[in-house]
Amino acid sequence: MKGTRNKSKEPDQKKIAALVRNLLVELGEDPSRDGLLKTPDRVAKSLVFLTRGYRQNLKAVVNGAYFASGTNHMVILKDIELYSLCEHHMLPFYGKCSVGYISQGKVLGVSKIARIVDMFARRLQIQERLTEEIANAVMDESGAEGVGVVITARHLCMMMRGVEKQNSAMTTSAVLGSFRTDEKVRQEFLSLVK
């Protein structure tokens, strides 16, 4: 498939640092000056960390943390901080994510929901796809009756450049199963994550 690569392989930080050094030169900087001497290595290390989601897989992240539950009530984890990089400008976007689901005999360990959010956020992303990926992963891993995900985030590509709108925030949602088909379930979820 076009554009795919072995994402489980750790990136070569030395190659990334060399590219950053060249970028600094192209921008008119001197990478050998005191303030920039270690910048290429720092940027390389930072980019590897910020894209670590490519090298994670869902089964390993969840790590079997399923627990039997006889109830089928709504479970919600709100205000999960997320940090990502937009795939269009490689500038950060950051915000909060709320995830809800109705279990069917098992629940996920609560920290695993936050880890799922991080796994997909730590990739080059667009918020719309990120929201959907989280919803699908929670649905697949929990076997839930329904799932809802809401993300509200601020995008530096819109704040620092382009239209320069400092107070704008984008909200996206994805609803699956009963959260999509049952208006009352969807409304309960949305009212609880406000």
Key features?
five-stranded mixed β-sheet; GTP Cyclohydrolase I, domain 2; alpha+beta; 7 strands; 26% strand; two-stranded antiparallel sheet
Describe this structure in words.
The chain has helices spanning 13-26, 39-50, 58-62, 110-121, 127-142, 156-159, 178-181, 183-192; strands at 66-68, 74-86, 92-102, 106-108, 124-125, 146-155, 170-177. It has 194 residues and is of the alpha+beta class. The protein has two domains: 13-50, GTP cyclohydrolase I, N-terminal domain (GTP Cyclohydrolase I, Chain A, domain 1, Orthogonal Bundle), CATH 1.10.286; 65-192, GTP cyclohydrolase I, C-terminal domain/NADPH-dependent 7-cyano-7-deazaguanine reductase, N-terminal domain (GTP Cyclohydrolase I, domain 2, 2-Layer Sandwich). Strands 5-2-3-6-7 form a five-stranded mixed sheet. It has a two-stranded antiparallel ribbon with strand order 1-4. A hairpin with a 5-residue loop joins strand 2 and strand 3 (92-102). The protein is elongated. The model is unreliable at 1-5 (pLDDT under 50).
